[in-house]
Amino acid sequence: MADNVTSLFRSTAAHSPSMAALTREGGDGAGPVDFCIPCNPYFPTPEMFEDMGARLRDIITYYPSSADTITAELCSLLQLPPQCVAMGNGSTELITWIDHLMVRESLAIPVPTFGRWTDQPMETGKRVDMFPLQESSGFALDLAQYAEFIRARGTRVAVICNPNNPDGGYLHKHALVQFMDAMADLDLVIIDESFLEFADAEQEPSVVQEAMLRPNVIVLRSLGKNFGLHGIRFGYLVANPALAGMVRSMLPKWNLNAFAEHVVFMLKNHGAEYAQSLHQVRRDRLDMASHLAQLPGLTVYPSQGNFLFVRLPVGAEGTVVRDRLLTEHRILVRECGNKIGSSSRFLRLVVRPQVDVRRLVSGLEQVLYGSRRGAAVPELGTGTNYSSGTAAVDRLVSSTNGAGVPGLAAQAMAAPMPAASQPQGGGMPMPAPVPVAPAAAAAPAPAPMPTPMPTPMPAPAPVAPPTPTPAPAPAPAPMSFPSPVAPAAAVVPPGPTPPGVPARGGLTAAQVRGTTGPGLTPAPATGWPNSQSWPNAAGMGQVG
Predict the structure, then answer these.
(1) Residue 532 reports pLDDT greater than 60
(2) Which of 34, 164, 375, 450 is the most exposed place for a label (fewest CB within 10 A)?
(3) Closest Cα partner for 544 from 270, 281, 200?
């Protein structure tokens, strides 16, 4: 039975197996304690579930209302104009349509990140320029360096996830607005705010209002994650009416199901419970980070999502830890070896109530250290530190990517990088490039990045979780971004990059997996608020 359960992970290349599959293979009809799927454990309330259960027959028997009706109700709740919103059957449906309609040639994305932002464009033959987040900088995204990366490669679409998945890295609203303005000449800038309602670094972190005023910005929001209902599959995007209408026009009339309709129309009566659930998740995040940081050799990275990114002790192999936690302790965790830019030494752990966290910590102690602390799990004899599975790049481009025809990748890397150029051919009409004036003075150096939570090696005695002292999160200093590069005389034809060849001076798959490409230096810190300076939970708090 244990072999059947763990084999499910080897047959799912990019994501974890579904809870339904794990429950079926478990044999007893009960699923594990879930530290893998990042959804709100406190919402909906038990009363809301009872209401849905009482109306289950009608919900699954009859057609739902049209997507326009459901979208109008959601917009009334969020105080957004319906013409600027498109609702999808999960954010993945919206990502798919954004790729088909608006990504003409290339897309840039920091990695590691949500897998559909790398996989979807590659599946349709687009070039994906992956900007590696550096472990030495705590996986913080430096926007100025990211902008330089985009200009150097001539990328036409830029994506930022805020907070990022899997590390929970957060960017302040002011810095994101600066970036959006600096990239006004791109075809599209996408800000994925799927986990933003769990953030408390500033009171109004979303850029949805700014997106509606700009010609090339889309903000993606999730509903399943923050409402604790992944299985319903609903999410939405916010943009100017032209962009939102373009996506909306392609969606089926009944792309939203009756469960989604029922929940959306329930929300106006449960705003207080929803706000309290977010507040509790933020408190649990601090408590959980404190307990995990006590494990010797385990590194916990600061997060503004409803999950924590952790690095296992030296010698521990993530797939072994994952499989043993599941089979021996019935605990499901997300091992991140199949995320591009990560490795099997990292886990993403969803924030859960304290009683579940105590079970997780106990399981990790037994799996990592056995009867004596300090004896970490040995690495697999035949494995690597990437994963027992296959990387998404190898899956989607080909098994030769990163190696390719002998000497081909080396020749391409040695060749001079061509100047960025505007792709030719058709596609959706976009605004003319907007020149960006260089900053009058150089931007001040970013604030130093705090070292991830220290992990003492002696076995600590159980202690009560500390009570953090809230303090305002530091606002980022203004930064300068590179101006758009003028098109070169020789135009590089658009189209997917051949396997094994860097994308216009970009990175091959092998380079993304753990090495830094030529000319890329570790990104400096960006002034991340540490656990002692996180402010009181404020979040969005607009629902209800």
Answers:
(1) no
(2) 375
(3) 270
